[in-house]
């Protein structure tokens, strides 16, 4: 049995959340809206962890570690991937295309000779 890819796991999560929302009588558009709002909630937790790691809230002091920040950032990423998978059946390929498109603005294009030679 092969190990599931990250997108296999994301798709399984999306299917589970879709089934749960359907059982609650939520329309797909409502589920999508709530899933996008969940990204915002997770971002807020990541921001709170940064503030806690820096100790900039005088009332709470150093309430978080940078490991906590890393965990919260992962939650943001996973939640975003699940949101995309819930909205698009082709989420993995769409994400790959968007990553290529958006990263091309910041990364140099591979040299044609190096690509042709397999370097």
String of helices and strands: HHHHH
Unreliable residue runs: none
What's the end-to-end separation, in Å?
Answer: 33 Å
* Principal-axes shape call: extended
Number of strands: 0
Give a written overview of the molecule:
The chain is mostly helical. It is 72% helix and 0% strand. It is built from five helices and no strands. The longest helix has 27 residues, at 28-54. The protein is extended.
Concise summary:
The protein is mainly α. Helix content is 72%, strand content 0%. It has helices at residues 6-23, 28-54, 66-87, 91-103, 112-117.
Secondary structure topology:
Blueprint: H1 6-23, H2 28-54, H3 66-87, H4 91-103, H5 112-117
Helix pairs in contact: 1-3, 2-3
List keywords for this structure.
72% helix
């Amino acid at each position: 049995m092969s190990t599931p890819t990250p997108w296999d796991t994301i798709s399984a999560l999306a299917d589970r959340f879709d089934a749960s929302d359907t059982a609650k009588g939520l329309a797909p558009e409502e589920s999508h809206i709530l899933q996008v709002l969940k990204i915002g909630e997770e971002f807020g937790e990541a921001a709170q962890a940064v503030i806690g790691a820096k100790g900039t809230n005088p009332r709470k002091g150093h309430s978080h570690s940078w490991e906590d920040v890393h965990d919260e950032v992962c939650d943001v990423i996973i939640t975003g991937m699940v949101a995309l998978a819930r909205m698009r059946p082709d989420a993995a390929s769409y994400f790959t295309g968007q990553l290529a498109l958006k990263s091309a603005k910041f990364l140099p294009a591979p040299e044609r000779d190096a690509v042709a030679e397999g370097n």
